[in-house]
């Protein structure tokens, strides 16, 4: 029988959260106890964690905050960024100049402190009342006084604290950051590049007057932190406390900001695609081979410098890559999702032979695990090393499979677990991903080679509820419930 997956089989350390079985019945989606626990991923840390950014303006703090949050949410750890600039702009509707950030501007200093306290209260609500696991406090936090305030706040609420300090003294990097990000900031509606550069550099000077970097040898030697120096040229890591902090450190040591392009595509149409079967290890159809040749022509026309090509170990991706006439690497972890007992069957055959399993998968596609196979959640965990390596590399073409491509795409586009299994990744189509300041630009390239459509839309609410009714007795026994439907109405 299929399952709603709980991840890597790790014991769950539960976090207090005011959500009960009756609460869940009113929530959208088909939810089970295991689904709640998997979503929290609380086995990674035994208490909520507050990540505190440190650094002068234009040092990439917001870039790191958003990127780290995207990664943590992708691996199943509920995470949210709290950007102090947003709170400041709410409190002060019109920004006039760098004078607001002078240390001797007492009125402004008081406003900034109040904004920080409001933000921290929102952090508290997120971690204690909204089932958040990690909060990222994105602010300069350049003084010991401010950091001590945060540490006391965390101690009062039993939060772990991990500091991330971004240090950069490269004027070219700082100038590039100002021009790329700050010119479009709400603080500068006029978008005048020269005026923005002048004012922002003066703002930085205001912060430098009171900046107290983390001191690993004395004052801050007992704190948990990582210093990222000059955009990853060097790192200093101090007193990592737990598994999730070690994952954060590893991730931050693998990302870079160099320009690059990532190309994602599926293999050419396979023989099993033609007959609607999932899984297996068949070769390409005639149209699949035609796509492989079209892909070769496309890649040659792009004239991509130092392009790396990765495939799975399945025949259809290897045949697609071989047509390129370049060296490629085979990754077993890029293999398609394992459908277990449903391998090499059509969806119609699965529905006829395993009607309960077919209905269960439509209930919660991300968490559902094929009998003897994998869930999308399992696949995300399997693909984490691929994401790490993609973050380390330059230009890469990944030739993979529908479910695998969905997982990778969800990471780069910051898609939720609910959206991930329904992302459109058609055959014979290339997605060109270009990382930008706070996200990823996507370009869809169709090579005009026909192929079958393998996409299945998300079932409607009504069809899901009706399909679940035949399972309700089993659902009740397992502590699960149907979509928005009281159990008493279904039994």
Write the layout of secondary structure elements.
Elements (H helix, E strand, L loop, with lengths): L2 E2 L16 H5 L7 H8 L8 E6 L6 H14 L4 E5 H8 L14 H24 L4 E5 L5 H13 L3 E8 L3 H11 L11 H16 L16 E5 L4 E5 L4 H10 L9 E5 L4 H5 L10 H17 L5 E4 L3 H8 L6 E2 L16 H7 L1 H9 L4 E2 L6 H17 L3 E5 L1 H12 L15 E8 L2 E8 L14 H8 L3 H6 L9 H4 L1
Parallel strand pairs: 2-4, 2-5, 3-4, 5-6, 8-12, 9-10, 9-12
Antiparallel strand pairs: 1-11, 6-7, 8-13, 13-14
Textual characterization of the structure:
- The active site is at residues 267, 336.
- In the C-terminal section; belongs to the phosphoglycerate mutase family.
- The chain has 2 domains: 41-252, 3-Layer(aba) Sandwich (Rossmann fold); 262-458, Rossmann fold (3-Layer(aba) Sandwich).
- Residues 6-16, 18-40 and 465-491 have low confidence and may be disordered.
- With 491 residues, the protein is α/β, with parallel strands linked by helices.
- The chain is globular and about 75 Å long.
- The protein is 41% helix and 14% strand.
- The chain has a 6-stranded mixed sheet with strand order 3-4-2-5-6-7, with helices on both faces. Strands 10-9-12-8-13-14 form a 6-stranded mixed sheet, with helices on both faces. A two-stranded antiparallel ribbon has the order 1-11.
């Amino acid at each position: 029988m299929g399952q709603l997956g709980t991840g890597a089989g790790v014991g769950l350390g539960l976090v207090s959260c005011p959500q009960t079985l009756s609460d869940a019945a009113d929530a959208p989606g088909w939810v089970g106890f295991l689904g709640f626990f998997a979503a929290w991923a609380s086995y990674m840390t035994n208490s909520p964690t507050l990540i505190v950014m440190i650094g002068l303006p234009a040092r990439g703090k917001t870039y790191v905050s958003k990127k780290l949050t995207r990664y943590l949410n992708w691996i199943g750890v509920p995470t949210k960024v709290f950007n102090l600039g947003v709170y400041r702009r709410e409190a002060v509707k019109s920004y006039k100049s760098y004078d607001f950030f002078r240390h001797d501007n007492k009125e402004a200093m008081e406003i900034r402190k109040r904004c920080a306290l409001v933000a921290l209260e929102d952090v508290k609500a997120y971690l204690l009342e909204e089932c958040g696991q990690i909060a990222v406090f994105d602010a300069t936090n350049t003084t010991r006084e401010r950091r001590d305030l945060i540490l006391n706040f965390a101690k009062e609420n039993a939060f772990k604290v991990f500091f991330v300090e971004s240090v950069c003294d490269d004027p070219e990097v700082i100038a590039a950051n100002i021009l790329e990000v700050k010119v479009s900031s709400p603080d500068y509606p006029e978008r005048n590049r020269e005026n923005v550069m002048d004012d922002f550099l003066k703002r930085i000077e205001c912060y430098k007057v009171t900046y107290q970097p983390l001191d690993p040898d004395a004052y801050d030697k007992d704190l948990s932190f990582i210093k990222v120096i000059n955009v990853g040229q060097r790192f200093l890591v101090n007193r990592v406390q737990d598994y999730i902090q070690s994952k954060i450190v590893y991730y931050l040591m693998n990302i870079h900001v160099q320009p690059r392009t990532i190309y994602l595509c599926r293999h050419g149409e396979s023989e099993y695609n033609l007959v609607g079967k999932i899984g297996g290890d068949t070769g390409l159809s005639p149209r699949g081979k035609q796509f492989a040749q079209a892909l070769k022509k496309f890649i040659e026309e792009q004239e991509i410098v130092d392009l790396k090509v990765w495939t799975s170990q399945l025949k259809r991706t290897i045949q697609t890559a071989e047509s390129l006439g370049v060296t490629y690497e085979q990754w077993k972890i890029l293999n398609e999702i394992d459908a277990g007992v449903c391998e090499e069957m059509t969806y119609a055959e699965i529905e006829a032979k395993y009607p309960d399993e077919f209905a269960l998968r439509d209930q919660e596609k991300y968490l559902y695990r094929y009998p003897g196979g994998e869930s999308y959640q399992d696949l995300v965990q399997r693909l984490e090393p691929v994401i790490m390596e993609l973050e380390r590399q330059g230009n890469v073409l990944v030739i993979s499979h529908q479910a695998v491509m969905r997982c990778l795409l969800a990471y780069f586009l910051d898609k939720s677990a609910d959206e991930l299994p329904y992302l459109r990744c058609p055959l014979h189509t290339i997605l060109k991903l270009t990382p930008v300041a706070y996200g990823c630009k996507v370009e869809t390239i169709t090579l005009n080679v026909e192929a079958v459509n393998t996409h299945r839309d998300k079932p409607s609410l009504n069809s899901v509820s009706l399909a679940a009714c035949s399972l309700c007795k089993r659902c009740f026994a397992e502590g699960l419930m149907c979509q928005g439907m009281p159990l008493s109405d279904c039994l």
